[in-house]
Amino acid sequence: MIHRWLFLLILSLPTTLWADQPPAAPAAIFDAAQQQWLAANPVLRAGVVLQPPYAQLDRRLHRLTGANVEIVNTLAALMGVQVRWRTFQTPEELEQALLNDQIDLAAGLSQTPAGLRRWVFSDPFLRVSHLLVGERDGSGTVDLEQLDERLPVALKGTDAVLDYLRSSYPKLKLEVTLSPRQALQRVVNQQASYAVLDEAQLGRLSREPEFLGLAIVGDIGFPQLLRVATRRDLPELSTIIDVALRSVSARDLDDLHNRWLPPSYLEQESSASFWRGISLLLGLLLMFAVVLALWLRRQRDTLEFRLLAARHEVELREIARDALRLSQFSIDNSTVGILWVNWDSHVRYANHAAEAMLGCHSGGLVDRPLRDFEPDMSMDRWLNLWRLARKGDEGPPSFETECLRADGSRLPVDVSLSFLQYRDTEYLVVFITDVTERRRALAALQESEARLQGIASNVPGVVFRLERARPGDPALFAFIGEGSESLVGYRASTLLAPDHGLRSLVHPDDKADYHRVQDQAFDSDSDWHWQGRMLTQSGESRWVDIKAMARRLADGRVIWDGVVWDISDNKRNELALAESQVRLRDLSAHLESVREEEKARIAREVHDELGQVLTVLKLETSMCELGFANLDPGLRERLDNMKKLIANLFQLVRDVATALRPPILDAGIASAIEWQARRFEARTQIPCLVDVPEHLPPLSDAKATGLFRILQEALTNVMRHAEAHTVTVRLELLGDSLHLSISDDGRGFDPASVRADSFGLVGMRERVLMLGGQLSLDSRPGEGTLLRVRVPLSECAPDE
């Protein structure tokens, strides 16, 4: 019976816990602006193409299922919105619905250059591999590099898969079929050695009996990356989708992949149902244990509270007794001498510090008059001090004097008096402080000031101090060294005048910068450094360097100690060096322009001249084949080899011309960036997200070529060093300048540790300076790298 009631209690827990659940609300991962947008848009229109297993419609239950449906429902639950589904038979219908403003987002799309003009794509949530399928003969994994024309490969793939296989494995004999089923049937009928299918197609066809003898023998290494796409006119939605998608754990995405893409069997489904039941039962038991633990904890907290209250009352009583003992101990062992003196100037109590100061033994001061320690303390003076301390109108009386110690020596002290009435008796409490060390410190300070004055007078510059009493008050010169006369021709006394100072000597053209730097330092109580020109008394202009260090004192004052140095000779050398650097940079820009022009000329000659020669050679070879191939079987084979060599030479000529100057640059920098990103993605299998504006103002050929070369160098560095999973390239038009940013999520590095001979970064930085722009690099170990480039649209000199 006990077990039965326990089981019923466990079953009732979910009903109790879930009875009054609040309505769905956005998760805490969104900021306030994003939650406000979601509240204003509680319903989103989602489109999906019916293609199992990504999306399939159960018409009997009127329910959509599939990987794309599940990921959108998961994101909608995180965003706290409802989804209205629209289904389509083809991707073209989905695109038309987007143009007709009938959908807001769609899942399961692949990023393409054409799609980037209509959609904003998220990071990939599903990676669909293209697998190589063959006979189940136990031979293991197949390497595509080792396959030749004797082993045909059948496939029904997209243009991207065909282009990838033809460019990566030119020896393969590819046979395109009308459907994935026909590709597998060719393998079963031994008309083809292998077939290429993606995971979704294989999972749908692997259940059929005629294909049970096939097995996965390899991966072609060209996955299809599925993303969530949103309308371009809803940038807030794309940002929210990215935040929600990042909150979905990698394990959940792996479960989504394993649930919909691999081949599934009835045995696996039944096993999964069994383990789900076990997990549900364990979850119910865990909830019951948590409720029981919470109840026991509440009972324990109640008992602990009562125990702490009783303990606190006992501690208060102990504290009161300890405070009394501590007060007496503090007075007895204070480092300040304390005397209780009655109206007739006789001592009634003295602590240990007072006895030690006056050189008396314990109890040796009691009942002795103050005249024994201060000969000038007459009775009239004492009574006058008594009246002043008792009235207390002007604060406690205090003075400095010298006390007579028991051995006859003199002790300089500070004396402070305070009136005390204890029960029916009145006392004056006399506090005695030994100031021997203070007098020594004062003498040392006076000596130090004299030494400072001597040093400041011999420094080859002007030493000064500025002081400000309180925030908002003007800063005034407290000290100026005598070196001012040799630097600017004015004596220190002249510069110390309130209406003079260093500001009056600044060159008129540099006054604005001087005031800005100095006022900024005054407002933030920080150090300040300024270089500029000053006018001497004779009207001569001199370059000076002013450095001042700020210090905040305990009384709230802020002081600036600084030095004014004459750097006229160094500044003239610096200006000459800067002019030389500008000339060298102009020469480098000219040489780079000449080199790019020479590359373009060589590319045109290679493409035109060699292309014409190869075309004529190909025609001659074809004529030989038509005229003489039938006469000798060996001659046909040699002619075929010659044609293949000519085709390879055609490709080599195109590669060389493209490397010298890509023809895509003639279509504009935006198209060139998209083309380079796709080449990088095909070469490295690293997803590369590209965001470029549709319409750009005309850009000079030099700047377009420079930006393209910087992108090439940055992507080369990512491929060699970053070990990244995703790369993002963004081109923006902000004001009168173009901003190019390349970011990756790789291992990153410390920019300060880059070697001086790292010519990649040096070359990019110099190229940006030649274009009149700016380059910034932000990277940390383990946090990826972000490269930003800003190039002005108008022709201007590079920033120094």
UniProtKB/TrEMBL annotation:
GO cellular component, one term: membrane
Coiled coil (residue ranges): none
Domain (Histidine kinase) ranges: 601-795
Keyword Kinase: yes
Organism annotation: Phytopseudomonas argentinensis
Protein's UniProt name: PAS domain S-box-containing protein
Keyword Hydrolase found: no
Occurrences of domain PAC (ranges): 397-447
Cleaved signal peptide residues: 1-19
Gene3D superfamilies associated with the record: 1.20.5.1930, Histidine kinase-like ATPase, C-terminal domain, PAS domain, Periplasmic binding protein-like II
Sequence intervals crossing the membrane: 274-296
